[in-house]
Amino acid sequence: MNTAVVILNWNGKDLLEKFLPSILLYSEDAKVYVADNHSSDDSVKFLKRNFPQVQVIQNTSNNGYAGGYNEALKQVSEEIIVLLNSDVEVTSSWLAPIVEIFQKEAEVAAIQPKILDYKRKDHFEYAGAAGGYLDQFGYPYCRGRIFQTTEEDSGQYDNNAEIFWASGACLAIRNSVYQEAGGLDEDFFAHQEEIDLCWRIQNMGYRIKYAADSVVYHVGGATLSSMDPKKTYYNFRNGLFLLLKNLRSRDLLPIIFGRMILDGVAALKFLSDGKPDHFTAVLKAHGSFYSSFNKMRKKRPDEFKIDQYYNLRSIVYQHFILKKARFSELEK
Q: Are 123 and 209 in a shared domain?
């Protein structure tokens, strides 16, 4: 299967200089693209001068992760596309296990590798770890990561597994399915748009998997750190977008109401911890949700094939009240 690795770049010349060599070295069976999201640094000149073998796609504006990929992927025709963050170090033969699953399992539409922390290579990384899930209220968590707690990799997730969502830090997807689904939702701009895409393609009848034998190392926070209130804003707003777009009608009111109550508790916790900017970000996120309600509601599908989107009622309760910090400890 012909494969494309597509790296979205915005003012990331230093990251390209650091990580692109390993991508080119270990992706010998794939075509490598860099989609430049209208950078103001000299990323494009740097690429053309130092990496002529890389296909550069120049986007007309910076429309975030979702819009950037949607624009760039119109120019990519390979069967399998890997959306790869610019702050990821890949390893030898990282693509082979992914392609093998696609070849053997036609119903699998998207795959993520094992994502470890570049700074602590024996630990899982926040953005995806060993595959993602949702709780009943739409809060994401992973095998190997619950909220800010990440596990050490001791081989506990060295098995391929079906998951609910694959990380946007390294997301392999069939090009045909990406186009059929309409790509990433640009109203998300950044954060959780890959979860929305995975939910939608499962509603189309496809499956998502984790490939344990494919390993990458992710720096994380290269665009927005966890300390940035913008990240809080996008995560809280987009979590509500996610539910409104994809929940069955019978679940909409109780689940979204419950989620907003929990968000309010989180906002008060930010305030008590001396983080007023994050408290304000949650309020702004809810305000944006209200103002975008009708627009997002119109994106709901005509038919819902997924009945059980969660395997846990509340990750908030289990982690913060019951003090469960590992995926294996959760009462599913």
A: yes
